[in-house]
Batch of 2 targets.
Target 1
Amino acid sequence: MALLQVKPSLSTAITTTRSVFETGKYEVKPISVDSGDLSIASPPPPKSLLVFTPLKEGTYPVLLFLHGFALYNSFYSKLLTHIASHGYISIAPQLYNPLLPTASGCDEINYAAEVTNWFSKGLQSLLPENITADLTKLALTGHSRGGKAAFALALGTYAKTSLSFSVLIGIDPVAGKSKDNQVEPKILTYKEESLNLGIPVMVVGTGLGDKKKNVLFCACAPKEVNHEEFFKECKPTKGHMVATNYGHMDMLNDDPSGIIGWFSEISCKNGSGSRELMRKCVGGIVVATLKAYLGSDTTDLKAIVDDPTIAPITLDSVVLDEA
């Protein structure tokens, strides 16, 4: 697979690419639906969902987002709104109760597959009547353990989906506590290019994810089970970008609520910069990747790779390895 060659002028590329880091042109409507709620969707989804959809009449690609371990999907509302404002229907299921995070890694993957299989049956019924979901352009992304679950779902070995994914984006994915203590199912092999996903992959990492917040907690994204290993093990086409001065939870909302929000604040090392800038950066990378692999427009993605300083925060280890 080769990227479409696009050669805009330098000034055009910079202007266009910086726009992916800002709010897009589409007004966005959030929709919340509980599992089993027939009043909003028919058939109802197998898991409660947060959906962020453009309001302008049209047909839009779909992004499935899997939340991190013991986190609420609502903690990502600002990030998902940013993505949706660029013309994507962003959907985040609540895979389990964060207050009772007893779901295994295998359960998590199966739940995500159930939601994916529901899309073709019930997604259209909960969208505004002038909005159509294009399920032939379906992206998969996830954060932390949800990132690992996204990789496992894309592999298709552990759960089957009736729909095919076109691109995978891992946001600081984590496979477990250590190389010898991976969350089941274990997908990392520690062999380069051993994960044959068959679709383009973008891995977004954090520079502080492998650092401890304090002596009470281990690092939230330890080396050997974090973004670096996921990138190494993917086959091209693959990309890698690292938010150097930010931590594992810094793409969440500024003020995640309740005891779960409080715990997310104290458990992982955070950067000293603005979370808004981090969300803009992660959102922009996601949008640029979606445009490249769902829309065959590589202008923004290639411009970021060619000049990472156009991002609103410092990016390091910026690589795009084309097949």
Target 2
Amino acid sequence: MSSLKIVLNFQAGLGVLANMFLLVFYTFIVLSHRPKPTDMISCQLAFIHIVLLLTGGDIWLKEIVESLNIDNDFKCKTTFYISRVMRGLSICITCLLSVFQAVTISPGTSLLNKFKHKLKKYMICAFLFIWFFNLTFSSNQIFSAGAFTNVSEAKQIKVSKSCSLFLLNYNAGALILAVTISIDVFLLGVMLGASAYMVIILFRHQRQHKHLHSLNHPRASPEKRATQTILLLVVFFVVMYSVDFIISSTAVLLWMYDPVILSVQKFVMNVYPTITPLVQISSDSRIIDILKSLESKCHQIF
């Protein structure tokens, strides 16, 4: 096993474990308490990232699937389709998370304030639309992905040991690529806009209330901590997406995938779903309290 594959396995394994912890935690919160809208969004995001890491990296599940006695063409189409759907869901749900947090912290005089009490209703509708759109729009992967053939073909680009992407029609491919880029740019713009709005709200709030707190020992509210966490995730997502987009665009334009470049791209793609749960775990006071309680109980036992 190469060093790059070891790094990818470790990265994906860490991400899966952290996301599974978050999924269990947020599922318990959603089922047992009155959840915040962002809790339900984070629960979905954890599930999406688990599937994304399992289908997008060189890890155990992918090797198990490849060892099954199933037609390679079907396995490639299924893997690429699920991976593409999860990638689309990741950017959409992250965008939704930033927008809902912006609405949550909006002041009473803001136009967004009237949506606060309807967040749960709008959120369910948003979930249904996002899932339906991505499951439908990503169906082109069923036609563009397939098993790698040894026959020399100019329109075939090998992206894994047994799978390839095929350029079936130049005009259709260019249209799908243009629409995909346009949607991603729009979502990134919404994320950055919501983030800028949250920064302005936090700055105004800090200026208005800094005389109530010691400048040497500021105490952030739960809403402020949650907002800062989401801002960090959005900035991190934009950076990782930009790097991934540059690598993907270069590979498609040159119509070739070097194994090293492919491994680097997989690493970049897996950074966000791996880092996200670690940031959320370290910044959610409820999780920190649970971990501290478990630590104290372990000290008492041992």
